Amino acid sequence: MSNIPVHADKITDETPVINQDMKFAAAKKSTWISVWVNAILSVWQIVIGVFSHSQGLIADGIHTLSDLIADFVVLIANRGSSKAPDEEHPYGHFRYENVASLVLGVLLLVVGGGMLWTAGSRIMSPETIPEVHSVALYVALLALLAKEGLFRYMLHVARKVKSNMLEANAWHARSDAASSLVVAIGITGSLLGYRILDPIAALVVGLFILRMGIKFTLQSLQDLMDRGADEETIAKITESVMATPGVEGIHDLKTRKSGDYLLVDVHLEIDENLTVKEGHEIAIAAEMNIRRDPQVLSVMTHIDPAQSVRAGLTT
């Protein structure tokens, strides 16, 4: 029986190096744009929030400040994951992105919890809620427009280069836009005489942040524990392998994530009467078919004689 491990590094023309370079460049550019937008907005919101006595606007400013910190986490992760493979990390450093997503999630959990505590304390003591100035409403509306625009831009870039980390950061920006909308509504209600609506808006913002934090934390933990590809991706990989001439069947197909990429292991069932060279060529062809998907980083194939496999299944 011939068992031939075929390593992906032998197929240089199919390696998605260009796509990786595009992803790193897009991440750097979009994240720096986000840094400048969030830096300006956070300072403006917190300062005006203090001046106008709006707890909701201050909470929204803190939320924006957390986005700014998250942007720097993404920049650090982007730089780390772009390092070339080395002896200690033969598959590259793409898990920097998974760790970055985990840091983002924990950051959101901490910020959201703190905001819930502060807003809840103010709601329990409504007599301590001050009157809000109208300037807070204009700042909240302007922040809403800026954050929604930033979200749409970042999501477009993330989906263009297929980056989960960038998409997570984009949805973080969308949560900011949603929170700004809630804050604007709360400030409007406060200006109309319902002062308790301002801390209620801050409470809702805290819930937004907490929810996103739970989502990102759980998702990144699963990725760090070698979560496999979804059923649709598995089906596409299976289809591409079975379309390879000479492959009669497959088994033990396994995948695991590394950053935004997939590592694939698969056993190929071929005619046992073929030569070692012929089996090797079939494995190479199957590997190239799999790696047409730019999400696939590495493929390991193992050859089994189809007749023996089928005999083993029937006994």
From TrEMBL:
| Domain Cation efflux protein cytoplasmic: from-to ranges | 230-305
- The Cation efflux protein transmembrane domain sits at 32-225
Could you cite one Gene Ontology molecular function of this protein? monoatomic cation transmembrane transporter activity
GO BP terms: namely: iron ion transport; zinc ion transport
**One Gene Ontology cellular component:** membrane
> How does the protein's chain sit in the membrane according to the entry?
Multi-pass membrane protein
Record flagged with keyword Iron: yes
Gene3D superfamilies per the UniProt record, alphabetical: Cation efflux protein transmembrane domain, Cation efflux protein, cytoplasmic domain
The UniProt entry, under SUPFAM superfamilies, shows: Cation efflux protein cytoplasmic domain-like, Cation efflux protein transmembrane domain-like
User: Which controlled-vocabulary keywords does the entry list?
Assistant: Ion transport, Iron, Iron transport, Membrane, Transmembrane, Transmembrane helix, Transport, Zinc, Zinc transport
Which ranges does the record mark as transmembrane? 32-51, 99-120, 135-155
Q: Which residues does UniProt call coiled coil?
A: none
Cell location: Membrane
The family annotation for this protein states: Belongs to the cation diffusion facilitator (CDF) transporter (TC 2.A.4) family. FieF subfamily.
Recorded protein name is: Cobalt transporter
Q: Which organism is it from?
A: Morganella psychrotolerans
User: Where is the organism placed in the taxonomic lineage, from the top?
Assistant: Bacteria, Pseudomonadati, Pseudomonadota, Gammaproteobacteria, Enterobacterales
